Every structure is written in C-alpha cells, then in structure tokens.
Amino acid sequence: MAPHDLRRPFKRAAISDQQRRRELSLQRQAQNRRDAQHQARFLAHTILSLQNDSTEPEQELESAPQVEQQAQDFDVRQAARLRGPEARRWFAKQLMLPEWMIDVPERLNTDWYVCARPAGKRCFVVSSNGTTVSRLRNGSMLHRFPSALPNGARTNNSSRSGQSYCILDCIFHEPDQTYYVIDMVCWAGMSLYECTAEFRFFWLNSKLVETGACNDPSPYHRYRFRTILIYNCDQEGLTAAYAGPAPYVKDGLLFYNKHAHYQPGNTPLVLVWKDESCSQYVIDTDSKGQIPDQQQVVLELLDDGRLATSDDPSIIFGCLEQYFIQKTGLQAGNLLRFAISEGGLCFADGKLERADLHYLGKPNRARAFADSYSKVIFQYTARHSPLRIEHLLASINSVNEEENTDMVG
C-alpha cells in the first residue's frame, strides 16, 4: 500500500476499526451496572495506602505474576501490599487511558470535546482524612501535601465527614508546579464513574473553583490546581485548542466523547492526537532522546509464542519460533522490543495481516505494559502518512456542508 493511500481526509482509513470499537464501548457502558461507589472508595484507599516506595527493591518485571484482576477482585489490604511490577500493573489499569487517534471519529463536531493536553506527569490526586496524595500511573508517590480540596488538609477536615474524599485525574506540570485537572473520578465521596464526560466536566468546572483549590499556594494549600479549557469540537473549538494560547506547555490534543463514562484502562472514547506544532514529542525517541531510524514497538510474549499488544482483546503482530524462545531464555509474559523493518506493516480488509519485526531485546524493567495497537499504528502513520490537522478540519467542514445541503433539500 503506497503511503498516500494510508490516509484519506473525509473517510475512515482502511487500516482502522477504531469506529467499530467506539460503538462497542458505548454499548458495553450502557449495559454496565458495576458498583461505581465501591470502585471509587477502593481506589481512594489504595492510593493513600499503597506501599510501592522507591526505596524498596523491585523484582524483575518478567518474573512477576500477571495482575489482570479488576479493582473489585482485591480488598484494600491486598492491593496495598502490591510491590514493584505488580503495583505498576494494577495501578496503571485504574487510569482511563486514551487510544491514539488513527482515524477521524464520526460526528466529531457534535459528539466530541477537544482540549489542549498539558505536558507533564499523569497522576491520580486523592484528598482524604486531612491530607492529599498524588500518585503516578506506575503507583509511585509524587507528592503528599495539604490542599484546599474537600478533606484535603487538617484545616478543612473538621467540616467534612470521614467518608468524604475526592479523586482527580491530573497532569502535574512542573514548570509552574500546577496540577491541571483533566477529569474528575469522585467528588466529596460521590462517584462519577458512571457519569458522562459532559456531566463530569460541568461538575469539575463548577466545583473546583468553589473550594479555593485554584487559588495561589499557601501553607495550607501547597500546589495550585487548574482546570483546562474544554471546547466543543467544531471548527472554532478545534482551532482554539490547537493554535490558541495556553498557560502550559502543550503535548497534543485530547478528544473526549461526550457520552463516555470514566472507564479504567484503554478506551476508544478518549483519543490523543499530536503533530509537530502542538507537541515536542510526536515520534517516539530512544533512551538517548533520539528518533531511531526504524520504528520500535514493545509487545508481550504469550504462552504459544505469539506477540501481542496491550489491548483487550489483544492484537497479534507475529509469532516467535520455539527454538528462538528456548535459545534466548524468554518466558511467557516477557515484554520484548522490536524494530519494524523495511517490510513495514501490511493490512488486508482493515486488519493487520503481517508485520516485519526485528528483535532488539527487552525494554526497561520499569515498563509495565506492551504498546497498544492504536499507538503502534499512530507512530507508523506519523512516519509515513500522518493524520494532519487539515484532515480533522476538513472532516468537520464536510459534515457541515452535508448538513447544509440536507437543509436546503
């Protein structure tokens, strides 16, 4: 397939089934009736008590057992005792992780929000019992501090119930020492897991300022919190998020489906997109900060030798021969790094048919998961035929033209 055939501005690319997975995800969340209040309470307690301190020796990632259970399968004491790779795997699954945008969603201008993503460290922030704790996506503690969030400091603890706690999904922006809140999971003990993004953003913007958490730092409020501007993803909103000023360094754009619930793990209802104008890091770099000549991917080795992404269900990129596995001492569950060689990626009927992979070795032991399918494809197209801002704007314009035509007709 020639590079210019990989991307078409007005219709979904032939290499993607992202739209189908978006529709399935919306159907699943409509059928989901899990105990969201229990999920939020469990996560808050675990963030406060997780003992994955950097001073403790970590086990080898490949020797750690798989931790695939959801939060409700643990009790608080069990999760708090997780160490090293186990803690990283469990904790990273609690964040809602965006897929990479590899095609333009249908109804982008009506069903989606867009915002400029702050550069920084993604983390959960929990306020409870008179203190506030932030933890990175690998479970390690970032800060423990007093805050103006409900029950976040001893000065405001007496007016709140012991059951009152907050969970915010944030990005810590180091240049201005500010927590930019990109989502709200729980507020004053009320779970927002099963609320739509439309409601969560309304609640976030109306409640956060009321607490004083957006005020300048003080002895009882060490870090400033700020909301980010959320736009309807029409032409004006997309242009503002992409080219407009922001009080932080941008790292791409985030797109939220207005109907999306807060879903732990990868979801096609939240998307990230980047180009060189709104992000310093579009194409992945190596350990030295250089862009390698060939794209590199990290895949997980399964029991039968197949190489899988982190998706559920996973996408298979190839298979290792048993003699090679035995020769190199590899084991099921290992994360392995590959380069995509000259043969590239081949697709048939919108599905991956073959990948020309060259084994490089194991990634850093701090790595908890394989790459997702959408990340691999985004990085591949970024090198060959990137999805550009002009394509997003053209998709919005084409929908507007069709609607105008229908009205005239």
What is the share of helical residues? 25-40%
What is the CATH homologous superfamily assignment of the largest domain? DNA ligase/mRNA capping enzyme
Q: N-to-C SSE series?
A: HHHHEHEEEEEEEHEEHEEEEEHEEHH
- C-alpha end-to-end distance: 39 Å
- What gyration radius follows from the Cα positions, in whole Å? 22 Å
User: Remind me, CATH topology of the largest domain?
Assistant: D-amino Acid Aminotransferase, Chain A, domain 1
Principal-axes geometry comes out as: globular
Spans where pLDDT lies below 50 across 5 or more residues: 1-13, 51-77
- Total discrete domains: 2
Note the total helix count: 10
Total E-strand runs: 17
CATH class of the largest domain: Alpha Beta
Structural class by helix and strand composition: alpha+beta
Largest sheet: 7 strands, mixed
The proportion of strand residues reads 25-35%
Overall mean confidence score, pLDDT: 83
CATH architecture of the largest domain: 2-Layer Sandwich
